[in-house]
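Before the break, one more example. Copy the sequence into your notebook; we will annotate it together after we see the structure.
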Amino acid sequence: TVNISGMANPTAKNDPNRPQIPALPATETFPAARSYNEGVTAFNNGDYDTAILRFTEALALRPNFYLALSRRAQSYELNDISDKALADFTQLIDAKPNNAMALTGRAALHIKMGDYQSALDDTNKALAIKATYFNALNVRGRAYLLLGQYSQAIADLNAALAVNPDSIVALIDRGVAKKASGDVAGGQADLDQARALQTAPANKTAETEMP
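Here is what the structure looks like once it is written out:
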C-alpha cells in the first residue's frame, strides 16, 4: 500500500488551499442564522474552537439545522477531534441518507482514521446518488490508492479530473498511483502539473451544495 505522508490533504488544518465556506445571505434572519454566520467567519479564519461553539449555538436554537451540523462536523475534523466529527457526520447521514456531500465528508474522515474500506462504502453510496460528484470520485480514488488498488484509483481520479482538470489533490494522487503502477513518466507529468498549479493563486471557491 501507499504511504499517505506527503500527499496533498484537502482537510489538513493548515492547508492554505482549503476551501472557504459561504455564509448565509443577509436575507436569512431566523435566530440561528447569526450564530451560524459567526461560525462561518471563525471557520474561515481557522479558529475552529470558536466555529464549533457557534455552530453548536445554532443547533441549540434550531436542532434540525443540518447545514450547521455539517459545518460543525467539518470543524471537528479540522480540529483533529475525529470521534465527534464522525458522530456529527453519522447523525447527518441518518437524517439525510441521500446526502452525497455528507457521505463523502464521512468517507474522507474514514481515510484520515485509516479505515479505507469504510471510505469505499460511503463513496460508493455517494456516487450511486451523484455519479459525477467530484469530491466523491476524488476521495474514492484516494481510498483505492491507499489500498494498493492502483487501476481503480487511476480510473476514479481520471473521472474526477474530467470534472475539475485543475485539482491539485487529484493530480498528486493520480501521479502517485501511476508511479506505483509502473507508469513513472505519466506519474511525474501529473506531479509536475500539480506543482505548476500550486504556484498559481489558490482557488478557494466553496461548494454551494448544502446538506
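The first helix runs from residue 31 to 44. The radius of gyration is 17 Å. Try to locate both features in your own notes.
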